[in-house]
Amino acid sequence: MYDAKPFDSLAVGDRVSLAKTVTEADGALYIAATGDFGPVHIDEGYAAGTRFGRRLAPGIMVAGLCTSVLTAELAGTLGISIEDRFWFTGPVFYGDTLTIEVWIAERDPATRTLVWEASARNEAGLEVLKARATLKYPRPRPGVAAA
Predict the structure, then answer these.
(1) Neighbours of 67 (CB within 10 A)
(2) Are 83 and 135 in contact (CB under 8 A)?
(3) Dihedral angle of Cα 94, 30, 20, 14, to the nearest 10 degrees
(4) Which residues pair with 106 in a beta bridge?
(5) Which of 34, 35, 118, 144 is most buried, judging by how many CB atoms fall within 10 Å of its CB?
(6) How are strands ordered across the β-sheet holding 127-136?
(7) Rounded CA separation 138/147 (Å)
(8) Are the CB atoms for 47 and 53 separated by under 8 Å?
C-alpha cells in the first residue's frame, strides 16, 4: 500500500479491484474539506424533489476513490497526475457499495507516462463512473537506482 513502484515494474494490463461502501461520514468529511455544500448532497428534502429521489454522494469524491485505488494498490506514489477525465454514468447514494476496478491501458517509456482507466459499479452492477487519466513518472537521476 502506497509503495514507490518503479515505472519499469508497471505493464499494460496490470489491474486491481477493490470494494468500498460510500458512507455518510465519507460524504461529510469530503463536503467539509471542499465546501461542496450542494443541496443534492446534504438536504434530504431538496434531494427528494430531484430525479434521484434522495441525496447523492459527491461525484468528485467517488472519482477520488478511483485515484486512491490507483495509487495505493496499482501504480504507487511516484507518478504525478497530468490529465484526469471522469464520466459520471449513474448515481451514487450513501450506503452504496462500489466495486472499483483500475487498470493500466497504455504505457509510453519515451515520455514515462501511463494511461490508466477505471470503472466503478454499484452492488446492482450498474456502472456509475468511468475514468481515463495520465500519470507522468520522473526520470531516474544518474547514479541513483531507477524508480
Answers:
(1) 20
(2) no
(3) 140
(4) 115
(5) 118
(6) 15-21, 97-108, 113-121, 127-136, 80-88
(7) 8
(8) yes
Calpha distance 63→11 (Å, rounded): 23
CA distance 122 to 98: 4
pTM recorded for the entire structure:
0.90
Give the integer Cα–Cα distance in Å for 27 and 143: 45
Q: Are 18 and 73 in contact (CB under 8 A)?
A: yes
Confidence bin at 61 (pLDDT 50/70/90): very high
Report residue 17 as a C-alpha cell.
479491484
